[in-house]
Amino acid sequence: MLLPMPRLFNASRFSPAKRLCHGAALLLICCPHLTAWADIAAKVDAMVGNQRKIWVLRDDATPANRGEARRAGQYLYFTNLQLGQSLLAELGQNPDTLPRQFKRWAEAMDKPEFSDEDRLVFRGPLEAALPRLGAEEHQDADARLERLSALRHVLGADFLDAFNPVPLKARPYSPRWTDYVKHLAQQQSSTQILSELADTVQPGGEASASAPTQATGPGVPGVPELAEQQRALKARALEWNGEELPERTLLLTFDDGPHPVHTPAVLDILQHYGLKAIFFQVGRNLGELQDGHVSATRNEALERRIVAEGHAIGNHSYTHPQLPRLSTPQVDQEIADTQKLLDHHVPTGPARTGTFRPPFGARDDRVLAEIEQHGLRSVIWNIDSEDWADPLPSSIAHRIVSEAEKNGRGIVLMHDIHARTVEALPQVIEQLLQRGFRFAHWDGSHLVANTPLPVAPAEAAALPSFLAPAQAPAPASSPAQPEKVKR
Ligand SMILES: [Zn+2]
Q1: What is the top-level taxon of the source organism (predicted)?
Q2: Interval between CA 359 and ligand 1 midpoint (Å)
Q3: d(CA 143, ligand 1 centre) in Å
Q4: Residue 486: which residues within 8 A CB-CB, separation 6 or more?
Q5: Terminal CA-to-CA distance of the chain, rounded, Å?
Q6: Distance, CA 267 to ligand 1 centroid (Å)?
Q7: What tens digit of pLDDT does each residue of 102-118 get?
Q8: Quick check: 253 and 439 in contact, CB under 8 A?
Q9: pLDDT tens, 42-87?
Q10: Which domains does the chain have, with CATH numbers?
Q11: Is the predicted pLDDT of residue 176 greater than 80, yes or no?
C-alpha cells in the first residue's frame, strides 16, 4: 500500500475551493465562507505530514544526524501542537456552528489517503475537543479515540512484552508499525527531511555546555586540553545535563505544561509512588502580560497543587521558541515574562528552582549568557523519553528504561501534555524501581536523592556542591534561588 506524503498547505488539494476559485489568494477574496473549511483541511493535512516526518526522523536517523533529527522532530512536534490548538480554535465555542465545524474536521480526518497509523496524530486534538462537543459529536469523537486506542495495542507490544523476558534488547514495536515507518522513510528519508527543514530549524549551534562529556575523552595534548577542560567546567556550572547525578539516580522532569487534564494525572501517579519532579512550564500556560505586568492568569489551582505536593517548577520560556534564532532582547523577554508569571503564581518557597530549560534544548553561548543574566541555571537532559514523537506508551517506557540503564544516571525529559506519557509513567517508575534506580528531587536549594546514598563518606564528599545526600539536614530557610555551583 502506498502512503502518499501530503504537501503542506497545497490549496489545489481542496477540490470544492478549486472549482469555485483558482488558488488560495483568490479563494480568500471570493469565497470567504470556504476559507474555514480549507483551513481545517490544510491544518489536518499539515499535522499528518509533520507527524510522518517526526516518525521518520526518530526511526531513520543515522548516528551522524541523530542530534539534528531530534531537534527537527521536536520543532515539528511543537508545530503540530500549535496546529492542534488552531484546529480547536476553528471549532469555536458556539453550539450553533460547532456541529458543522466538527463535521468538516471529521471529513478532513477521514481523508482516504490517510492510513490508520497517520490518524494517531489526531488523538490529542480530539481529546481536547471532547469537553465542548454536543452529544452527537461527542459520540463520534469517542468512537474515533477508541479506534486509535485499539490501534496502539495492535502496533506496540504491551508493557510486559516490552520488558520480558530479556527486557532491553528488542524494541516493542509490531512488524506492522516497523513496516509503516519504513515505508514513510522510503518516501522521504531523514536526510531529505533535514535538508528541507535546514532554514527553519536551529542548526547544530549547541552551546559549549555540551562539552563536559567530550572533555573527559582522549582530548588534545597540551594547553588546548586544559582550555577545553576549563571551558567544560564553566559550562557545567551554567548547565546541568544529568551527568552530575550520583550513580543510578534519576531526576524526572516534565515540560510544556501545565495542562488541565494531563498534569493532574501525572501528579496522581507521582503521589502514588511518593516521587517528586521538576515541571518546566511554558509561560503562556500560566497567564498573560501587558506592559510587563501580569494581566491574566491560567491554571492557578493546578499550580497551587503542584507546589503543595512538593514538586518544583522551572522556566521554559513564554512561547517556546528556538531561542538562538531570536535577538537578545527577545530572548530576554521570553525568560523575563515567564519569570514574572512564576513570581506571581509561586512568589517564594522551595518549589522555586531558579532553573531554565531552553525549548528544544536549543541554546548557544549567547542564550546561556542571557539565562545566567537572569540568575537562572540551564537544565538539559540526557534521557529523552521521546514522548513527543512516540505514540506508543510501551515504547516510551522501554526507551526511558533502556536509556537509564545505558547512562546509569540522569535527567529524564517527559511532557505532561500527552495522554501517552501518563499511560507510560507508572510502568516507567515500576521498572526503574525494580532495577534499583532512585529518584532525585529539588528540596529548595539542592537536588537530593529520595533514598540514602549508598556511598562511603569520602565519596559523598566528592559530590558536586549542589547535590546533597538525603540525610543531610535541610537548609534553615528556603531560598528561592539555588545555591550557585562554585565556579
Ligand atoms: Zn518544551
Answers
A1: Bacteria
A2: 5
A3: 30
A4: 237, 465
A5: 59
A6: 18
A7: 999 999 999 999 999 99
A8: no
A9: 999 999 999 999 989 988 888 888 888 988 998 899 899 999 999 9
A10: 11-155 (1.20.58), 233-468 (3.20.20.370)
A11: yes
